[in-house]
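Hey all, sorry for the wall of text incoming. These are the two entities for the joint prediction.
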Amino acid sequence: MNLITAFVGIPFAGMLFFPFLKVKGKGMLTLLLLTVNIILSGYLAVQSLLGTPFSTTLPGSYVTGAIPIRIDALSGWFILIINLIFLTGAIYGYSYLKAYKKRNNSLTLHSIAFLLQHTSIISICGIQNSLVFLIAWEILALSSFFLIIFEHENPVTIKAGINYLIQAHFSIVFLMIGFLWVLNKTGSYDFQAITTYSASLPGMASLVLFLCFFVAFALKAGFVPFHTWLPYAHPAAPSHISGMMSGVIIKIGIFGILRMLLIVKTDYLTAGYILLVISVISGLYGVMLAIIQHNLKKLLAYHSIENIGIIGIGIGLGCIGIGTGNQVLTTLGFAGALLHTLNHGLFKSLLFYAAGNVYQATHTMEIEKLGGLVKRMPQTTLLFLIASISICGIPPFNGFISEFILYTGLYNWLSGGNLFSMLAAIFSTVGLAAIGGLAMLCFTKAFGIIFLGNERSPLPPTCREVPFVQLIPTYLLAAVILLIGLFPMLFIRLLSMPVGLFTGGTMWTNNPLQDGVFEVLQPISLAVWLLVLLVALIFGLRSYFRSRSRVSTASTWGCGYVAPTVKQQYTAGSFVRTFGKLFAPVLLVEKEETTVKGIFPNEAGYKTHSYDKVEKNLIDRILKLNKNFMGRFIFLNNGRLQFYILYGIVFIVTVLGIPVLYRYVVSFIELLKLL
Amino acid sequence: MLSVTLILLAALFFTGIIIRTKSLASGRKGPGIMQPIRDVLRLFRKGTVYSETTSFVFQLAPTVYFASVVMAMLVVPFGQSKGVLSFNGDFIFFAYVLALGKFFSIIAALDTGSSFEGMGASREALYSMFAEPAFFILMGSLALLSGHTSFQEIFASLHIGSQISYAMAALATFVLLMIAMIENSRMPIDDPKTHLELTMVHEVMILDNSGFDLGLILTAGYLKFALYGALIVNLFIGVIPYQYAISAFFGIQFLMAVAIGLIESFMARFRMSHNPQFIVVLTSVSLLIFFGVLLILQKFI
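and here's what came out:
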């Protein structure tokens, strides 16, 4: 009880001080308050993960009713992920924002929004009262908006921010529909009412209720086709915010879906199939678009969509497991999804932080303009490499572990069941394998073009490694990535409680994770260790042989041509050109080409610009229709103040008049009925 | 352990046999069968030249590539006898650990800043992406058929009896052989002996490697061949006693090497732009295998 008061009170009390502090003080205070709150919430989270869920009821007010707060193992797992990423994000941001020292006021807003974001997102994990949940959800949306538009003088940033804000509110609309539906029938805000109510519903209706919540949370998580805000918001935000948004804010959507799966009793089998289809499409579509992006942050943003798809595959498998009563499948699906949530949080925020380092050093995010950064920023290069390998799901890092669990789940599902489920399983497997292959294409491109080779355009002379303080959080993330890769069992044990929630309340007595489902991870861990040792051994051998022979340097082999310019290097565009041609029906790439003509040719050029087909058909078309329709009423918007005041009065009178008119409307309807 | 020994032995001769076949087919006498191994041993002792453009990635890549192939070799079984490592889902590890090596060889090619090597890297990334689903469908089908999810258990319980399973074994051999061709950058996909850098895939990626590093890459290539050969052999030797199985192993490896030599002697490489289509066909063929398994299990009514 007191813990919660302190948790909510601390950031609000801190806010009073922010306007009066100097830039450095703001940073320190944010870090300090955040740390306190991380410890407070982390304490509860660890407790719940170890088997003592926290539960209390705040008295609330007349409007909200009692506010139940329940932190179970699922909340605990997410709170720990959020805290880890927020901590690294805050340390990184503290150093990253030093470049913006002069913008004192923006920094005040930024610090406040940062703390509010943390408070609201943690609250979302615990609150089980739908009205208060909505309030926290709204605070999260607004604070994220303010964090995104930090560089608000840039029109692109503002546009991205507003795009996010609007879509975030679409999510709230769907949440409200779901909550109001239940409220209307049960009269209670408590989430437990949803459980009892949905259990009484017929299968179809409860599925609609679940899908209502699903759409709301999918908008936050960025499942295709609800993803269109994401590739704008991530690049527009400062790097630590992009890292955190991609790392945890979109994961709160995943949390929401998982929470709703726990409290809405629905037709899990159908829900699982729907989730699986959407997830496979999200994964494939996300990575396909990521490949053709020329802006690093946008590439990473599309990659988040892909990883949300992978997490979704796990959730879908888990649902199907519940639906068919297959405990092993449920365990594998949800464990894979939860572990991948953590994994993606780790490597994606690491990638964004590394991208932030690149941006600070070079002032550009255009992949085609970069190159050869390994010589200027060796540490950032190494960190980006580690994250790239792990995001492709390749051993010895963490991405492999969660994808391995998902594959195991898929093959488990394949081995039993009917024709339909077998086909679904094999196509999901194809999807997951293709996602892995495409991710490799994407990240060899991103890493190879940005960090390797020669500089493709002149870099600023100040381009060098960022200060060490800024590298600390990135090393921390890299260490956890490696830790999960080498000791997966440690983390799997932590997962036993949250997964137990899904496999049915027997988590105290009958731990599903000890039934041998994850025994397979022991040899995996051994194999990964062997791999690391083998690399070390061969590298040692190589050093020995090299010390006994002559080592010299020369220029790169250019088929005998010894004076190549940097422009002759392979570019990102050419690296993925064949891919672009093969997948042309899915992609939308505009080309501008000036070809060489005549005996004395002019300058030639080639430009490509990619766009999102889903966005074009789903968002732009509707916006255009809306604009056309609204255009009919433009005469109302005549720019005269008198008219606007008149509109205001008309509105107020109408609103006040509704109760009066209501009686007449009712009696009119009665009259109609009589007729 | 048995499988590792056998693969190592096969790797010693495999590339030599291919080269010898090609020489004989073109009317030359050709080098001895052990010549590739002698080349590698020479390379291990030779000095190294590095490009000025390269970084630590280029230094590390050949080692990782080699280690990844060795790791993949450790999980391959031989009929009833397990690989050094054997666990449920080891074929997933097999595919992904090979992907690690590929990842490094691709970025090492980009590290040189050469447009030729970039070209090769781009193709390698694309082709391996297309080949991956075929492998996973194939292994999924076999897992479904045998009810197990580790290489050794799958192969040990695979017995080819009915007519459908003959067809399936043939298709599976085809898929594995073609994946081996893609992975090793051999003929219909890539021509290792072309004279023009523009038309290579794998060879162009290692243009700047020399000395010990080149030796590692070549050795890894030999091992990879024997590795996939062993997988193909495994399709057939599930229940056969060792004395026959081992001779079958060498027989099939020999046949495979000769076949590759003959293909390379009498066939032209596909056009680069047709390669992806060809590789996607593999996915379809492996889907056929999957449907075959469904037929055997009588899942179709």
